[in-house]
Amino acid sequence: MARTAESVHALIKAYDVRGIVGEQLDSDFVRDVAGSFARLVRDDSASRATRVVIGHDMRSSSPELAAAFAEGVTAQGLDVVMIGLASTDQLYFASGLLDCPGAMFTASHNPARYNGIKLCRAGAKPVGQDTGLRTIADEVIAGVPGHGGPAGTVTEQDVLGEYAEFLRGRVDLSGIRSLRVAVDAGNGMGGHTVPAVFDGLPLTTEPLFFELDGTFPNHEANPLDPKNLVDLQAHVRATGADLGLAFDGDADRCFVVDELGDPVSPSAVTALVAQRELAKEPGAAIIHNLITSRAVPELVSELGGTAVRTRVGHSFIKQQMAETGAVFGGEHSAHYYFRDFWGADSGMLAALHVLAALGEQDKPLSELMAGYTRYAASGEINSTVADAAERTEAVLAAFADRTANVDRLDGVTVDLGDGAWFNLRASNTEPLLRLNVEARTQEGVDALVAEVLAVVRA
């Protein structure tokens, strides 16, 4: 059936498909997306895919939507492998293991009424606006052509054990000291994957909210929001755990809390993992996005590696990973990308690196991570504005006589010298300006934030 451009583009976004189930997203729409995706990967001369792997999270709508997607794929003559409940990085693993395109049903950290689809080509290569989603949207609007040939088949395959074994094979934890680890799964897919991955390791797990429940009865599965870390922080302090780990809804991102209950910056985790990867492959390239702490490229350079700066967003990171052959990439949002994981992101693999680094020595995590934290940072601060471009230019004018350097790789990054800088980026989907500030001291950060926001919010 033909659909309006407005309704389709409201669902098919820059990186994935996402919307409110029943109001925007339904089985018929999913079948159309599946049919178009199947045509895309089937007719691609570089891949000629013959099957698609499908996984889904714990949301109540996910099994039905995953089944509808399978119907759309098989109607185009391709076979389907259903892996059932999975984290997003488990789906990426299956795409790499089976060397076929994949579809993951999840809305990540969004509320329960949402669902969506993350698509990838064989080997977990991302499908974004410029690599297939625009084509799919256009075809769904026009009406997806039928196949006319025989339908494909559907089989089931459990890859959780292989996924867990693969990750344990990437990071050796066999010789570490015993650690007590508090884990907040947020009723998301971490409750499914953590027990499998941690099985047999010298770890005592303190589980929080491991019950799979897509209504998120305890808190949102979005650890980027500090309020959703409160339970984990309290649990770490109460139990004397060596550290805490918090996963988002589809468990592809992992946030870390030290033994004091204080959050560890994803930039510090990026620096730590970069050091470990460079120890294995000296001189390798490391990707970091432009609002990751400057401590990351500084450390990479000091260790003899090549720091590669990129825009914010997984499609840019993955593109740079492929072009540079980088061994690792990290973002401020706690997405961590590994060449040995098909260039895809895995919060679980990053967590294993943190556990290994902590367990290989005797310091507490707070002391260990202090060596990777050189600056104070604001975190991302959003402001609602009527004209993002006009407000951005007003900020640049206000700092014109103090600016050491300005670049426009992604929004504007203003370098004020002596370790102080800020980035101002417009949201792609909302009337927001996003501000990130870094300086040598917290006082310096606070003063710079106040000065920029006085102009942004004038």
UniProtKB/TrEMBL annotation:
InterPro entries: A-D-PHexomutase_a/b/a-I (IPR005844), A-D-PHexomutase_a/b/a-I/II/III (IPR016055), A-D-PHexomutase_a/b/a-II (IPR005845), A-D-PHexomutase_a/b/a-III (IPR005846), A-D-PHexomutase_C (IPR005843), A-D-PHexomutase_C_sf (IPR036900), Alpha-D-phosphohexomutase_SF (IPR005841)
Pfam families: PGM_PMM_I, PGM_PMM_II, PGM_PMM_III, PGM_PMM_IV
The keyword Magnesium is assigned to this record: yes
TM annotation in the entry: none
Alpha-D-phosphohexomutase C-terminal domain ranges (all copies): 380-453
Family annotation (NCBIfam families): PRK09542.1 (NF007088)
Name of this chain's protein: Phosphomannomutase/phosphoglucomutase
Taxonomic source organism: Rhodococcus olei
